[in-house]
Structure formats: C-alpha cells, structure tokens
Design a protein that fits this description.
alpha/beta, Rossmann fold, two-stranded parallel sheet, 7 strands, 51% helix
C-alpha cells in the first residue's frame, strides 16, 4: 500500500488554494488507481478530507455557471404593468374598461408607441377618431395612466443583490418615450443598470431579433454569458433564439429560486 501523508494545515491556505490541493490529491489518487492493476490503493492522510465534497461541488458549479451578465425586462418584472386591471378599476362599467383595453393596448398604435414612431398625443388623437363614443374615457385615461407603474419591491431587492454580487445589469424593455421620461426621476433603481436598451430608442421591440442583436453588439456581450429575465413567453423564446440563457418570470420567489439553482445567488 502506498501512503501519502500531508501535514499542511487547512488554515495555512486560502479557500482557492485548498480547493486546488484537494483537486491535485484526488487526481493523484485516480491516476494511481488507473495505473495499478494489482489492486493497491493510495491512502491519503490529509487535513483536507472535509473539503473534498466542496471541491467537487465547486467544479460542477464552474461547468454550469458561465453567466456574467444579467438582463431584465422592466414591465411585469421590476415594475407593475397590468393595464386590463388598471382600466377595470378606473371605470365602474366593465364594458368601458374592456373596450378601452381593446382600443389602446391591442392596437397597432400601442406597438408604434413602443417603437418611438408615435407620440402619446398623436396616438390619443387616433384613438378618439377611431372611437368617438369613448372620447371622455380616453381623456380620463390619459390624465392618470402612468400611475399604473410601481416598483415591485421583491424583484428590485433581487436586482440590488445581483448588483452587490458584482454582476453587470442591463435592461431590455419595450417602453414608450413619455412613460420612461415620466418614471425615470422617481425610479432610482434604474441607476443599478450598466445600460438600458429601450424599444423607443432603437425602433425595434421584443421579440424581434434586432433588439437582442442590438443589446449584444452595442455592449459587446457574448450571448452564452448572458441571462435574460422576462414575464412574456415570446420574449423569452426570442432571447433563446439569439443564444441567450433565459428565465420566464412568474414571481420574485420563483426567480430567486431559479437564480440559486443557477448558482448565481
């Protein structure tokens, strides 16, 4: 029997060096067993036995966690965005709420607002022309609709934690110019982002391939090193088509659990 003894104290080495030494010892053991058909085994007497599992765990994490950059959608992930509920709460008559939802949020003009092709005032005039019977409701909505946006505290806390861990953070969102300019002064957590790619600035919306390409090229990101978080399945699929790892957001608790499973938190 071959015996290798180590008298090096665990406290004498940094965590990284301890892991290296354990890796080295385990490799010696493997090579000796492989080259020793007579059945002799190598016995290791070491103060590092308790850390062999840690070494194996860290090596597994190394292989699965290549994420360097985290990309967030805004509406529905970091900011509340439920226009149907907002409209049904705003108008006592549910039929008016539903009609307003269809008129505004299911229109081509809403997408054009996201692309930066229309102003709020231009869109408002189109909606009134299209549905003159709803003119009073359109004016009422126009006076207060930006107040439907509020930070989601639990997700903002996750964003802060990722920032504290040193991850560069990016926003990738379909957003209207006037909405962003209204919200920006009061949403201080926007300062945590390295960069914000917003649809109205570049003329493309998710899930179009160009918006993901713009993010990667403009900020010199490798898709396999990025993780994207969005609450819309089609946007998640668009990111995956661009080679970006993605999580479909359901709740802050689910997101935190998935980030831990990816060894990110």
């Amino acid at each position: 029997m071959v015996r290798i003894s180590s008298s090096i104290s665990s406290s004498m080495l940094s965590r990284r060096n301890r892991v290296f030494v354990i890796g080295f010892i385990l490799r010696i053991r493997f090579l000796h067993s492989y080259s020793n058909p007579t059945g002799y085994e190598i016995t290791i007497v070491s103060h590092f036995k308790s850390e062999r599992k840690e070494y194996q765990s860290l090596k597994a994490t190394e292989k699965t966690n290549s994420i360097r950059h985290i990309i967030f959608d805004l509406g529905g992930v970091l900011i509340t965005f439920d226009p149907r509920k907002f409209l049904l709460d705003l108008f006592p008559d549910p039929q008016t709420g539903e009609a307003m939802y269809a008129l505004i949020f299911q229109s081509r003009e809403w997408t054009d607002l996201d692309r930066g092709r229309l102003s709020i005032q231009e869109a408002k005039e189109i909606f009134i022309e299209r549905a003159p019977s709803l003119e009073t409701s359109i004016h009422q909505f126009d006076r207060c609709w930006m107040h439907m946006f509020h930070p989601i505290p639990e997700t903002v806390a996750i964003l802060q934690e990722l920032h504290d861990h040193g991850y560069p953070l990016y926003a990738l969102s379909n957003f209207i110019r006037e909405s962003f300019e209204f919200l920006r002064p009061s949403f201080s957590f926007f300062d945590l982002f390295t960069a914000m790619v917003l649809s109205y600035r570049i003329g493309h919306v998710k899930p179009e391939p160009q918006i993901y390409e713009h993010l990667l090229l403009a900020h010199k990101l490798e898709p396999e090193e990025c993780l994207f978080i969005d609450d819309m399945e089609q946007n998640v699929e668009g990111a995956r088509s661009a080679g970006i790892h993605s999580i479909l957001f359901v709740s802050p608790q689910q997101l935190q659990s998935e980030l831990r499973n990816h060894s990110i938190l």
